[in-house]
């Protein structure tokens, strides 16, 4: 086990580490208006999807650290409880950052950051035309935690309409994560970009009830070649190959390989680890359970 070091809240070190720990965070690029119709646009990385029926997003414009005052976005929402959440991808990440500058109230960040205002269909705040996906939202509730500097204000926003760039959709109106080129916030000045090399799939365990790591053979659980991820894959199967299936597999191997080279359990574990890295869980189980 790794040795850990502990930190208490309400220190700069704790705050910095927390933002590195809970990341990457999607960005809520929120457009709002005040009671006089003045437009504001600002990004918030304390944001996520929280429900499907109805579709609910929550984001949090924190109180300013220097004096505990509230931000224009929050003040606008109190005056006019609507917003548009504009999803940020790599093509607009620098403009998004520019829009986070604390301009005086009444300054339109669409203009400052060079964005195109598109009229919304249900709510009054405009959409960011350059954003790949825009969510028109009605504000259900704002929960203010305290009035202290850095305190959260949880804006509970119900999505009433979704807009997406048409070229991102296929014939079935499905979108691929490979095409969105999304970005997210990390700690400090760091962002991350969702590029093809960083995308992978993990099968949801919804169709079967996995055995669990606790039910794996002892030598498998204690293997020097199988990682925690490997054990998670192995524990997600519902049934193990039967002895008859394993014998049939071994017979087929004999026709192609000198299986005596795999007599050592350690060697078979190495083979299984490579198969698991390739997503072949069933094949890995045959090698792990086969005796030579």
From TrEMBL:
* SMART domains listed in its UniProt record: Flavin_Reduct (SM00903)
UniProt keyword annotations, A-Z: Flavoprotein, FMN
Known cofactor(s): FMN
Q: Which GO terms fall under molecular function for this chain's record?
A: FMN binding; oxidoreductase activity, acting on the CH-NH group of donors, NAD or NADP as acceptor
Q: Give the matching InterPro entries.
A: Flavin_Rdtase-like_dom, Split_barrel_FMN-bd
The record ties this protein, via Pfam families, to:
Flavin_Reduct
The Flavin reductase like domain extends over: 22-180
Give the family from UniProt. Answer: Belongs to the flavoredoxin family.
In Swiss-Prot or TrEMBL terms, this protein is called: NADH-FMN oxidoreductase RutF, flavin reductase (DIM6/NTAB) family
Instruction: Name the species this protein comes from.
Output: Algoriella xinjiangensis
Upper taxonomic classification of the species?
A: Bacteria, Pseudomonadati, Bacteroidota, Flavobacteriia, Flavobacteriales
């Amino acid at each position: 086990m790794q040795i850990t070091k502990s930190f208490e809240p309400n220190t700069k070190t704790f705050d910095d580490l927390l933002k590195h720990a809970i990341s990457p965070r999607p960005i809520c690029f929120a457009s709002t208006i005040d009671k006089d119709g003045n437009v504001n646009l600002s990004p918030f990385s304390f944001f996520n999807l929280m429900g499907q029926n109805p579709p609910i997003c929550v984001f949090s414009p924190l109180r300013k650290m220097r004096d505990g005052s509230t931000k224009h976005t929050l003040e606008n929402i109190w005056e006019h409880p609507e917003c548009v959440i504009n999803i940020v991808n790599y093509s607009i990440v620098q403009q998004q950052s520019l829009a986070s500058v604390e301009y005086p109230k009444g300054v339109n960040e669409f203009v400052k950051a060079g964005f195109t205002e598109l009229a919304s269909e249900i709510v009054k705040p405009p959409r960011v035309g350059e954003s790949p996906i825009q969510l028109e939202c009605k504000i259900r509730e704002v929960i203010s935690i305290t009035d202290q500097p850095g305190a959260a204000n949880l804006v509970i926003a119900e999505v009433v309409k979704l807009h997406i760039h048409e070229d991102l959709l296929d014939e079935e109106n499905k979108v691929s994560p490979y095409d969105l080129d999304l970005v997210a916030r990390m700690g400090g000045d760091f962002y991350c970009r969702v590029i093809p090399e960083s995308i992978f799939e993990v099968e949801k365990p919804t169709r079967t009830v996995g055995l669990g790591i606790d039910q794996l053979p002892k030598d498998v659980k204690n293997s020097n070649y199988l990682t925690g991820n490997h054990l998670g894959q192995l524990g997600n199967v519902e049934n193990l190959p039967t002895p008859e299936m394993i014998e049939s597999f071994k017979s087929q191997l004999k026709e192609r390989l000198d299986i005596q080279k795999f007599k050592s359990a350690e060697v078979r574990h190495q083979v299984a680890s490579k198969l698991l890295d390739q997503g072949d869980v069933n094949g890995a189980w045959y090698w792990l359970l086969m005796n030579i």
